[in-house]
Design goal:
By secondary structure, the protein is α/β, with parallel strands linked by helices. The strands form 2 sheets. A 4-stranded mixed sheet has the order 1-4-3-2, covered by helices on one side. A 4-stranded mixed sheet has the order 5-8-7-6, with helices on one face. It starts with 7 loop residues before the first helix and ends with a strand. 22% of the residues are buried.
């Protein structure tokens, strides 16, 4: 699929499995966080929307204003953290490198890099709005 030119309806009909859609007040800022810290690929970047690729996984970023009529927007906090209670893993991304890039860009590394009992080396990095992302590789 050509993510930079696919129509919205074709893209929507192509989605399968678990879908992740993050609401944000700043699509471009969150997209830059994903690209700069985790090396993810960004497509269709605008003030309102972006497609984010991590290997075969696809997720979306939508601006708050695109959710104007959706009831979810009414319960999203004005201030971070938005994603409290959810941890989103980014498997196959080196947590040591991601943590270094996050710290260099003044992003919060909530949980330092460590080898965990469940066989992963991981850390947890907060996005500017408080979403928790954990890059992880086998320990």
């Amino acid at each position: 699929m050509e993510y930079d030119t696919v129509s919205a309806d074709e893209f929507g009909r192509s989605l399968r499995g678990l879908g992740v859609n993050l609401l944000t007040a700043n699509v471009r800022g969150l997209a830059a966080f994903f690209s700069d810290v985790f090396g993810l690929t960004i497509h269709r970047l605008s003030d309102d929307f972006a497609i984010v690729l991590h290997g075969p996984s696809v997720f979306q970023i939508h601006s708050d204003r695109t959710y104007g009529a959706h009831p979810l927007l009414g319960i999203v906090p004005e201030m971070p953290p938005r994603g409290a209670g959810a941890q989103l893993y980014l498997f196959g991304i080196d947590p040591d490198e991601a943590a270094k890039r996050a710290e260099a860009a003044a992003h919060m590394v909530l949980e330092p890099v460590a080898d965990k009992p469940h066989g992963l080396r991981e850390c947890t990095i907060l996005s500017p709005e408080g979403y928790a992302f954990s890059p992880a590789v086998p320990a």
